[in-house]
Specification:
about 375 residues, alpha+beta, three-stranded antiparallel β-sheet, about 25% helix, about 20% strand, disordered C terminus
Length: about 375
């Protein structure tokens, strides 16, 4: 059993800028490797996972690796992953296999394991769309990541959200199984958390299996986009992450950026496609050489060619980037079950800069369009 990539991207699979990943998970009395490569999750110790699933359905014990792979497949397009997962490489959601086991053994509503997020940036929900895919109005309201997932209460990251009062019906087994699966996926560590989030984002991006349903889930996707753009913009511009709002961009080109205000009152409004979350953010490519990366034109680990903006209002340029030596060393090591790389997870070094081509009919990305005017106070959002 394996989790397959959710669909092609306009410039190749979104994951081509990523190396293979491997970690170990508890499986019976031992630990077994779980490997992600070329957009798919594999189980090297289980050559016939489908057969094992059949045996488990007939009453046999399901192996831990099989449970992880099944959970990956189930949550590969689950927007709840975007709500509880990391928003930045320095924002790992710390779940141990002991937490997973505690939840497995606890009765409904009794799990008390702590799930921590050491450097979390809040997710924000942009204001209501003003029609089309224009840039969001300034000052979007705060959005609780926990509320979006329906799993963890704010602050403590405990599950479930509320204990079930004595005398009420027990939590349905299906919901408990889904929560157990998501906990197991978070226990795989930061690298896998980022890749899973990218898999989900790609499912909702153009070419993905859920792309046609994107409009109905726009608020959740824009909250995920804003929550992940904000820490990147803070590194890029030194701006307060709370002063960043993003909307989904649909249609040709990569979107747009607008910076308003001065000093501490600066506010960044952005419009980016859902695919940005997969091809750029999940690959650790958000900021390179002092530029904000807005699209990936081509990639083959450890090299990539990206479209990047030096500052808001400037035309983008093409950057040739290469994963640094530290990233390469980490890619060749098996990930510890609880250890993740630092905030420099994917340190990309710029190896070349050139102007971006414009005007061609097959052009994969275009310079930022002029943002639509912000509504006045008397106009509806």
């Amino acid at each position: 059993m394996s989790g397959q990539p959710p669909g092609p991207q306009s410039n190749g699979p979104w994951w081509r800028a990523l190396p293979a990943l491997e970690t170990r998970v508890p499986c019976g009395p031992d630990t077994h490797p779980v490997r992600w490569q070329d957009g798919a999750l594999g189980l090297p110790a289980h050559p016939d996972p489908e057969g094992e699933v059949v045996l488990a359905a007939l009453g046999g014990e399901k192996a831990g690796c099989i449970e992880v792979a099944a959970a990956w497949h189930q949550h590969a397009d689950d927007l709840g992953v975007m709500a509880v997962g990391p928003r930045d490489p320095a924002d790992s959601v710390n779940v141990s296999w002991e937490d997973v086991q505690e939840f497995r053994e606890a009765g409904p509503g009794r799990f008390g394991g702590r799930i921590t997020r050491p450097h979390s940036q809040p997710m924000r929900r942009p204001g209501p769309p003003a029609g089309g895919t224009g840039l969001p109005p300034a000052g979007g309201s705060k959005f609780s990541a926990a509320a979006g997932a329906g799993l963890f209460p704010a602050g403590s990251r405990r599950v479930p959200r509320r204990p079930i009062p004595v005398g009420q019906a027990e939590e349905p087994e299906r919901i408990r199984a889904e929560r157990l699966g998501l906990l197991a996926l978070l226990a795989l560590g930061l690298e896998f958390q980022m890749v899973l989030s990218g898999t989900v984002a790609a499912a909702w991006a153009d070419g993905g299996p859920r792309a046609r349903e994107r409009h109905a889930h726009r608020a959740a996707l824009e909250a995920a986009l804003t929550g992940r753009l904000a820490p990147a913009a803070a590194r890029w511009l030194g701006i307060d992450p709370d002063q960043v709002d993003a909307r989904l961009h649909d249609g040709p080109g990569w979107g747009g950026l607008e910076l308003s205000g001065t000093g501490a009152a600066r506010h960044l409004r952005a419009a980016l496609p859902a695919g940005w979350l997969a091809a750029v953010w999940a690959c650790g490519l958000t900021v390179a050489g002092g530029h904000l990366v807005v699209a990936v034109q081509q990639a083959a680990w450890p090299d990539a060619t990206v479209l990047a903006v030096p500052e808001p209002g400037r035309d983008p340029v093409l950057l040739s980037v290469r994963a640094g030596e530290e990233a390469g060393r980490k890619a060749g090591q098996n990930a510890d079950k609880n250890a993740g790389p630092s905030g420099d997870r994917a340190h990309w070094e710029v190896t070349g800069v050139q102007p971006a081509a414009t005007g061609g009919p097959d052009e994969p990305a275009r310079p930022s369009p002029r943002p639509s005017p912000r509504p006045s106070r008397g106009e509806a959002d």
